[in-house]
Amino acid sequence: MKKNVMLIGALLIGITSFAQNTNNVQLGVRGGTNFATVAGDNYDSPDSRTSLYLGLLAEAPLSDHVSLQPEVYYSAQGFDITDEPDSPDAQFKVDYIQVPVLLKFYIADGLNLQAGPQFGFKVNESLDFASGEDSGSFDTDSINSFDFQGAAGVEYKFPSGFFIQGRYSYGFSEMIEDVDIHNSVFSAGLGFMF
To answer: What is the pTM of this model?
Structure first.
């Protein structure tokens, strides 16, 4: 955990230095709703966990139609376990500090497509059972602390600085070592550029 905090700190310092040394950089905030689940051979499409994300971003123009957008945000993820035989209803919560570095391609006034790598640092993991259910024995520290992902999305930015966006991210790293299970998150939200 200490190593993750140091890495996040180093990334934030790098993003801040980049923002200060680039002309026309805009800083902003974003937040919204995650529809998170997992994908892979070992899990058959569990129900999604609906949760929130909230964070900061910087946008630095590289040309008239291309920008670089580093971000840092808190993302509540995981999945729900419901209607499974021999298993009580539960919500598996895995929360991350996500650090995407996206390229944004403006295809029309305000409308852009974005894609890039995303680095996830686990900050919380828990398994919450439905009221009255027996939790049995479960190792709540089984998720890897780092998740390398790819992210892609679409955004519309209004002249006022407000924007709306949708994004999908997929974890290329295994959530649990040697188990074919990966994060899969759709998100929708809005934000404001200062």
So the answer is: 0.83
